């Protein structure tokens, strides 16, 4: 197993921390990120030490630091369970977005090599005699284009020593457009496609990974980090774990759950069976959750009733009734405080349903790629930051 540290972008220690943004500006930015991702999902129908990645705050998105090449160079990548290819900006760059870290120079790495066309991970990409090429398109017109390559990646572990995994496939981007943020140099793709980082690690991580997203707000910006863990570290301690199977789609790319209904304060909304025809996508790259329009209207009506009874503290918890498992969202993960007695429901109406990062805070989530299921349990994620 391996692990990497996760860091939230609202942490002052994050490379993407923006101290001058107001709470309202942050909220609007999160809404636009999540809505744009929704359009993407809709368009594509969507030794015994454990490896671990540190997760870092990134405005309700999270980043990881990972070592690439020989000698090792640090790359800061956005952690994204809704994307499959891991890529970073490389020299020579035809067109690149501004980043604080130097561009990856593959000519200086002794372990870099092009992906061969006979590599099974090249399926679905355009290949010619000189190599295989990729084009990744994201929300708001962002994209990355480049060549597929093989390289060594270096991780931290639970034993507090680094370890190297050789010959991992990744994208070396030479044309990259979009506002990814100057503090990052690419994406860590973690969905279900064979070329995703998690699927490539495969047997080495016992086909599972987990994370527990810490919470932070503008009134409490002290560092609070957790880990993206793999293998033996990717477990839920205690007996309160619940599991629900992933829905298998064609193509089977995203982590999708069957959502049957939603409750407010223990009272089901009584949503019809056809309310969530495409299921619910679990997406760490979406800042906030998005809900099918019919469900969103009912939630608004219900929450308004509670709001008229008093102040913010009177708002109830929300429960997502997935197939075989109930996922409870505490009220502090349902609303964003934008000032004194000013708050907004941290969800938006869209044509697809996504469980975003804000609603995943303080929940240990385990992805089991072998048994094709997700397990989860409430946890104080700040306690796992050591």
CATH class of the largest domain: Mainly Beta
Structural class based on helices, strands and sheet pairing:
mainly beta
Give me the count of strands.
27
How many separate domains? Answer: 2
Low-confidence stretches: 42-48
- CATH-defined superfamily of the largest domain: Acid Proteases
Largest sheet: 16 strands, mixed
- The percentage of residues in β strands lies in 35-45%
Quickly give the CATH architecture of the largest domain. Answer: Beta Barrel
In whole angstroms, how far apart are the ends? 17 Å
Radius of gyration: 20 Å
Structural write-up:
There is one protein chain. The protein is mostly beta strands. It has 2 domains: 2-213, Cathepsin D, subunit A, domain 1 (Beta Barrel), CATH 2.40.70; 236-378, Beta Barrel (Cathepsin D, subunit A, domain 1). 11% of the residues lie in helices and 39% in strands. It contains 3 helices and 27 strands. The chain has helices at 23-44, 197-201, 293-307, and strands spanning 2-8, 51-58, 61-68, 73-80, 87-89, 113-114, 126-128, 131-137, 143-157, 163-177, 186-189, 208-212, 226-230, 242-245, 256-257, 259-264, 267-268, 280-282, 289-292, 318-322, 325-329, 335-339, 342-345, 347-350, 353-355, 363-368, 373-378. It has a 16-stranded mixed β-sheet that branches. The protein has a 4-stranded antiparallel β-sheet with strand order 17-16-20-21, with helices on one face. The chain has a 3-stranded mixed β-sheet with strand order 15-18-25, with no helix packed on it. The longest helix has 22 residues, at 23-44. It is globular.
